[in-house]
Amino acid sequence: MQEKTNSQVRKSARGRGRPSTLDEERALDAALDAFWRRGYAATDIDAVAAAAGTAKPSLYRRFGSKEGLFLAALERYAGGHGTQPLAAFAAERDIASAVRAFFRTAVEGQTTPGRPTGCLFACSAAPLAESQAAVGTLLADGTRAAHAALVARFEAASADGELPRGFPAAARAQLMLDAMQGLALRARAGADRAALLADARSYADVVLSPAPP
Fold first, then answer.
1. Between the CA of residue 87 and those of 79, 82, 104, what are the distances in Å?
2. Does residue 126 contact residue 136 with C-beta atoms inside 8 Å?
3. Residue ranges under compositional bias (Polar residues) (predicted)?
């Protein structure tokens, strides 16, 4: 029997590797977890491909580059985990319950067992905002949208008499976002959920106070 050529051997070896087909949902979930858990620089695309059950070239064909995959993971986070605090805020009828739900949901999401701690935006994306323009734009757009949603609700609450007018709506909203990011960084550093929830309740009291701190 004629021996296989070197080319045939290489093709056979490639055939035994990971499949070249791509399950995009699985790939994005694997990338999101890796970037959230390890950060951008420390994430290895070979490891992401292995977790996604695909080949590295398949990821690059679909997403173009590591940065492209990171952006896709950020967009997935923005449409999922990242929406939960605002969704909890919007679901409450009175403003005090809404603010408390926002902070509680944020902390619970930042400290969920079996999932990376903190916030993908604050812990992994923010350090790249200056060096990767697309990342910076995504973060800026998301922050503006969140701020606008909070401001609109606070203005409505002031108009309805739920909140005093001495604390501008824009300042309340910015304080909420800043406090949430601070909680995320502390969660990433290993802070206990119970301690973070206690502090979150204090932050909610400040946001709901009659005047700026």
1. 11, 9, 12
2. no
3. 1-10
